[in-house]
Design goal:
The chain is mainly beta. The protein is built from one helix and eight strands; from the N terminus they run αββββββββ. The strands form two sheets. It has a six-stranded antiparallel beta barrel with strand order 1-2-5-8-7-6. It has a two-stranded antiparallel ribbon with strand order 3-4.
């Protein structure tokens, strides 16, 4: 699905084939805020000069409007899985954040 308009973006996050419900907790504490996320992939292999590192991590897309202040060490809970946010990268439009996360 190509994301070209705000309507496309809304449809992707509303579609159960793409999106999952999650709870975003600031600093990993509190009751949490319900958000929709889409699982995505980040490069698994990191090359630093002559060194290659395999990284086991998860990535999610979240609408900036749903989680405007999401930051390092916040958590996402999806069912029985909980992830710590390691990095937040906005897309070019600023409408979507890519979250680099580690399972905890």
């Amino acid at each position: 699905m190509a994301i070209e308009t705000a309507e496309d973006l809304a449809a992707m996050f509303a579609d159960d084939e793409f999106a999952e419900s999650a709870l975003w907790r600031v600093g990993g504490a509190g009751a949490g805020v319900a958000v929709s996320v889409v699982r995505t992939r980040l490069p698994e292999l990191l090359e630093l000069g002559q060194t290659r590192l395999r990284q086991k991590r998860s990535a999610f897309l979240v609408r900036a409007s749903e989680a405007p202040g999401i930051a390092l060490d916040d958590t996402l809970s999806l069912g029985a899985e909980t992830f710590s946010v390691r990095d937040v990268a906005p897309d070019a439009s600023g409408a979507v954040f890519t979250l680099d996360c580690a399972a905890i």
